[in-house]
Give the backbone structure.
Amino acid sequence: MTKSIRLDRFLANNVPDFSRALAQRAIRKGWVDVNGQPCRDPKQHVGPDDEVHLDDAPVAAVGQRYLMLNKPLGYVCTRRDRHHPSVYDLVPEAWREHLHIAGRLDVDTTGLVLLTTDGDWSHRITSPNHEKAKRYRVTLAEPLSEADAETLRNGVNLNNENAPTRPAELTQIDPTHCELAIREGKYHQVKRMFAAVGNKVVELHRHAIGPLHLNEELAEGTFRALSDEELALTVSQ
Ligand code: URA
């Protein structure tokens, strides 16, 4: 926390599962101390030098947030949509307005989505200049020939793009399943790449971005904070 903010907002931002309304209730009930004194005014401002306790436990200001989320099928990566739920619905309400997504997925794609409050970091993750490989498991409608696999590895021309796609890694698992790693993020890129060789993606799942791998234990629709080790890897690689 670099500037002062209202006590109810401070609690909603920094206590998991605390909404503004719950924070106000706790404050009014006298459960919150500021610098050792109970404070019953949700509008009171607290700054970096203030010590806040909730039920006698210290509440630390969380700096930037870095989350990995396992996106389920049917969720959109925009904040609101008329027909589908949003991945933002899957994170605590009080955190939503400050988070943005580093690399969106289509509504029918599943898997690893990164959310953060740190604009510089998300730029590093998504910018083609930083060359972070995005790894996908792809299920195809038609068997993929070795000739088409090679074309995709070398780069294909997509509709409405001037330059061919950058070299990609493609590992065939069986005739209709493969793993693809790309180092750029054009609109619907994976689907358009396979369409360019006359095939069709029927299932798409992202399992890694650079050094960050989706945990198999992270259930669909849930998220967790990145560890310090994972964050350090994204900076060094
Ligand atoms: N490429 C696609 O076509 N869709 C995604 O969701 C991600 C990459």
In short: Residues 105-106, 109, 188-191, 204 surround uracil (CB under 6 Å). The domain at 5-59 is CATH 3.10.290.10 (Structural Genomics Hypothetical 15.5 Kd Protein In mrcA-pckA Intergenic Region; Chain A).
